[in-house]
Specification:
Number of helices: 11
Largest sheet: 8 strands, parallel
Shape: globular
Strand order of the largest sheet: 9-8-7-6-5-4-3-10
Distance between the termini: 29 Å
Number of strands: 10
Strand content: 5-15%
CATH architecture: Alpha-Beta Barrel
CATH topology: TIM Barrel
Number of domains: 1
Structural class: alpha/beta
CATH superfamily: NADP-dependent oxidoreductase domain
Length: about 325
Amino acid sequence: MEYTRLGRTGLRVSRIGLGCMSYGNAGAGMHQWTLDEEAAAPFFRQAVELGVTFWDTANVYQSGTSEEFVGRAISRFSRREDIVLATKVSGKMHDGPGGSGLSRKAILEQVDASLRRLSTDYIDVYYIHRFDPNTPVEETMATLDDLVRTGKVRYLGASSMWAWQFAKMQHAAVLNGWTAFSAMQDQYNVLKREEERDMIPMCLDQGVGLTPYSPLAKGRATRPWGEQTARSSSDTVAKAFDRDADKPVVDTIHKIAQAREVPMAQVALAWVLARPVVSCPIVGATKPNHLADAVAALKLPLTDAEVTELEAPYTPQDNYWW
């Protein structure tokens, strides 16, 4: 494993992060491929064995049961002080006034609920899952700053919004002497590069570390064009990566992988890891090879010619976040 700093902070994170969206009680879940606690346990153990110390979840994943699994897995397979623990707030947990969004009431209610489920008294990186247009940014940033000052949260992150919205929130923090965001978790992969227009240049300028989700394009970048899985054939989000315009990129990944004699996943992730703004891609693991391939990608430097070949067929598209 390799380690780096999260943006300009002093926080040391593994270059690969474990994404925990697929772990939780299936009855409470969003996805048919959700793994229960027994099935998820080997992936937490494997993460520890491989040195993957950045674990990422969210309050809404499987109605909070993902957080519960993560909290118990830390106690079972590691130590709290050895894990950089990230979770998120904003999504709907219930119908009450504190059940969703980024109001002061919602953030304070939801952070305490997450702490209970995670069985910890602090969160290392606390992300706002989405921008909340119904709450003044000053209210949100002041409340998040309070969490840092009281010790419930160590660092702040944001996820999936327009660059102007992110800039507005950062400006409010700087203007008032509050804690600013240190991380941005957005969708970024060789098939989805729209963040290169505004968000990534801003993060580079401001020293914000990228912890991208879907670095393998919901699995589309890991198999030859036309091959389907249970998820890709049933998940609306995954199907969005079946654009005809993406085929030349996937074919190029396949070509380079064959020439290098490595899985396609390693080539696709090596491209993401080489981006200067990326601190820690978030990799979901539901099969034994997923984390192993991700870690192996750290030792697969792509040549300039290979990077050019991968990027050349890309076709701009509308931005979207799921």
